[in-house]
Design goal:
mainly beta; 2 domains; 1 helix; 12 strands; 4% helix
Length: 135
């Protein structure tokens, strides 16, 4: 078998290295979870950020940005955080990953600061919840 290809266990067809499903029969390829946490964590989408409580784990992306001469400069937070408390404009949290300190995750309405030109838009968040083990 050539390098960078994989074989389907159902129909023995050759597929590309990044294929999630076989192009011939459509059966899914099995992938290992990246870590123990990824295996034991469930992602909850479409949550109301005002209902978060202290200790909830969230994953954050997006948020405020600056657009200058055709260049998009992100200024929001990214990564995983633990909620400390909620205020009227957003979420106060402590970082788990690369942002190890305190962060205020903006969740207010979209506005642009006239002096600096920074667009403040709400971050996108999902709640991370431990999977329940069924025995």
């Amino acid at each position: 078998m050539p390098r960078g290809q994989k074989i389907c266990h159902s129909c023995s067809a050759i597929n590309g290295p990044r294929a999630y499903a076989c192009k011939s029969c459509g059966s899914d390829f099995a992938f290992k979870p990246k870590s123990k946490e990824a295996k034991n964590t469930k992602i909850v989408k479409n949550i109301n950020w005002k209902e978060l409580v202290k200790g909830d784990r969230i994953k954050v992306r997006g948020g405020p940005y600056y657009f200058y001469r055709g260049e998009f400069i992100p200024m929001g937070y990214r990564g995983r955080f633990v909620v400390d408390c909620i205020d009227d404009k957003g979420i106060r949290a402590f970082g788990i990953d690369k942002h190890g300190g305190f962060a205020h995750i903006y969740m207010g309405r979209d506005i642009q600061n006239k002096e600096t030109g920074v667009w403040k838009i709400a971050h996108e968040i999902v709640k991370l919840k431990n999977r329940e083990v069924v025995e």
